[in-house]
Amino acid sequence: MNRAYHGTTSRFNGYFNGTEAWKEGVANLEKNHVDKFDRIIPVFKFGTVEQSKSIYPQMDKAIKKAETVVTKHSMLIKGKQYNPWVDACYLLRGKARFYKRDYYAALEDLEYVANTKSKKKRRHWRHEGMLYLARTYSELAMFGEAQSVIDRIKNEADFPNKMKDQFYAVQADFYLKQGDDSSAIAPLNRAIDLTKSKKIRARYTYILAQIHQKNKNYKEASKMYGEVLKLQPSYDMAFNAQLNLARSFDSSSGSSKGIRQRLLKMAKEDKNVDYLDQIYYALGELAQRDNDETQALKDYTKSVRLSKGNNTQRGTSYSSHWRHLPFSP
């Protein structure tokens, strides 16, 4: 009866309410996350340091609920924990500290969970703890330690199939944080294959397209950006995928007419009025890939003229415009 009391109270009070607060905080952070599409976007929507402060109330509530279970409902008898929800709350506290960016405190909880032997039906907590442990080490740029955890996961014979998409995402994030973009390709492909959520698949596919574009593998990049659009991503991602389709166009793969028409259609839409400089710059790059220097100059000129506040794009457009001006000897 004592076990039943502590287990039930831990599960339906501390763990449940703490998890709900944690979920709310994560959802708010992901909602406020803004991707910068001029660079490879991150695998996870993690926000900025300032944005993380906005979810302190939810994470502090999760930590408090978890600590109540750990301190008041633990049944550690002769080195054996008889209340399995204590391990779950160590994990919850570690994840909440991770999202507060209190990484060293998070490591204490996550290492405890990752090294705890538990019954088969509770083993997913240990595996989730290992995933967050690898992420925490990566955030701290402790890549040797992160690699060790990743290797441990690879050797886990009972690592659940339903968590393998998360594992490959963590592995891709590990490589990208080190600037090893090419090594992230294989785990991203595996994550895409295993992920059920269309939104998350679109994100992984977009990152994969960016890597191929950066490596000047334009044919594969174009293919991936096309796949992104099929997954009906957010408007910002779809908009940038269209731009990058033009920038990655490979003349050997066919006509660019369809891509040009789509970009011109975008230029006519009121919601894109602040992005006309980017659209016409992409059109200029497309014309340049088609070896149409006259059209490229026209598009770059429009890009410069229509630039309103994006100084980075204005400078890039002006540079391309200047290079295509015809000079008389």
The best one-word shape is elongated
Strand percent estimate: under 5%
Give the count of helical stretches: 16
Major sheet characteristics: 2 strands, antiparallel
SSE order: HHHEEHHHHHHHHHHHHH
What's the helical proportion of residues? 55-70%
- What Rg do the Cα atoms give? 25 Å
Q: Give the class from helix and strand content and strand pairing.
A: mainly alpha
Number of strands: 2
Question: What topology, given as strand order, has the largest sheet?
Answer: 1-2
SSE layout:
Blueprint: H1 2-32, H2 49-53, H3 56-72, E1 76-77, E2 80-81, H4 85-99, H5 103-114, H6 123-139, H7 143-154, H8 164-177, H9 185-194, H10 198-214, H11 218-230, H12 235-247, H13 257-267, H14 276-289, H15 293-306, H16 311-323
Antiparallel strand pairs: 1-2
Q: What do you see in this structure?
A:
The chain has 329 residues and is an all-alpha fold. Among the domains are: 1-101; 249-329. It has 16 helices and two strands. The protein has a two-stranded antiparallel sheet with strand order 1-2. A hairpin with a 2-residue loop joins β1 and β2 (80-81). α1 (2-32) packs antiparallel against α3 and α4 (85-99) runs parallel beside α6 (123-139).
